[in-house]
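Exercise (ungraded).
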Amino acid sequence: MDAQFWNMKWQKNQIGFHLPAVNPLLVKYFPVLELKEGARVFVPLCGKTLDIHWLLQRGMNVVGVELSQIAVEQLFSELALTPQITDVAPNMQCFQAKNLTIFVGDIFALSRVLVGSVQVIYDRAALVAFPPAMRAAYAEHLMDISGTAEQLLVTLEYDQSCIAGPPFSITQQDIQRYYGAEYAISCLENTSVTGGLKGGVPATENVWFLKPE
Ligand SMILES: C[S@@+](CC[C@H](N)C(=O)[O-])C[C@H]1O[C@@H](n2cnc3c(N)ncnc32)[C@H](O)[C@@H]1O
């Protein structure tokens, strides 16, 4: 899953991962985060998720990162915001308007200085977007650039031999392996995915709260 793979998905508008409504799991578990108005929420691999609209409406400051410029242009357009665009690093631009800052580029090229201080990470469809070989590096880098901020993390679990990812299946043991040394991990919910994944493969959507220890 390299940049070309994802850029092609956006170019061809093959964005089945993009939900047509705000994720009900975010709405349900947002109170667990106990965020005050103005808190900074980091949304890695944000696409143009409607969850960002919802977080902004709740008075949050949102910082995201996304490879695809198409996605980010659509995000700002759908929010009726005109971004100021600046070059902030080689192959990295920053789109900024009001309480929204989106870095356009590879998350692995993003530094802690650029991200700034964040209270929480909201990871929906980011960890699961990386194949197993890249996942530990993503988890390490995410902790590094966020100062190991607490996380609301949504993952999927299913029989990986039935279909190829993304999204990839992630087990509780995986979460423990990637994050167990730095966070206390609580599972908030396991829900069956209605109709299964891609043609009906039974799957569970898991919601995790990761609190730095
Ligand atoms: C599965 S989608 C999830 C999007 C969003 N979180 C959502 O819930 O709709 C993964 C997104 O991550 C972006 N992406 C993939 N690899 C990336 C990387 N290394 N750095 C930044 N963005 C990346 C893709 O372009 C895609 O929009």
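Further reading is listed at the end of the chapter. For now, observe: The chain has one domain: 3-9+22-212. The pocket of S-adenosylmethionine is lined by residues 6, 17-18, 45-47, 49, 65-68, 71, 106-108, 124-126, 129, 166 (CB under 6 Å).
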